[in-house]
Amino acid sequence: MTLIQPHQLRWIERNLIDHDIPFVVIGGVAVKFYHPARDTGDVDLFVGAEPSTISRLVAAIPKLSADQNARAQLLDRRVAHFKVEGLYKIDVLTFAPGLEIEEAVSTAEIFEVDSVPIPIVSRRLLIAHKLAVNEPKDMEDVKLLQ
User: Fold this and answer.
1) 58 within 8 A of 50, measured Cβ to Cβ
2) Is the pTM of this model over 0.85?
3) What pairing do the DSSP bridges indicate for beta strands 116-120 and 109-113?
4) Domain 6-145 coded CATH 3.30.70
5) Closest CA to 20 of 88, 91, 82, 105
6) By the 8 A CB rule, do 89 and 43 touch?
């Protein structure tokens, strides 16, 4: 089962793992981990909004470090994410309804991709997140997950 493409994995390693930024995979890829029939177009990564994490994130990613407003935007619940451009199709979220980063990381399932451990949000927390978002696609995902 291919959840994460090699170029996405390299981006995650280079920008998150190498900078000790805690994260979990959420969204469609996480649903696919538990229910392989689910299709997805991107990888959603939840990093939380701890100020020190946001500072490391901004420092690690050149596009963010070049934007003087990046840190404030990532700490603002109304913005709270950025998209990795081009072929990566990665969304990095600092806030995710129904999730706290500490619990999400500590209860994550680990999926190895090319010997790199990738944390996937637990099924229980993924359902809680999808219920909190409460969009039609999320309700479909909840049915798949239950």
Assistant:
1) no
2) yes
3) antiparallel
4) no
5) 105
6) yes
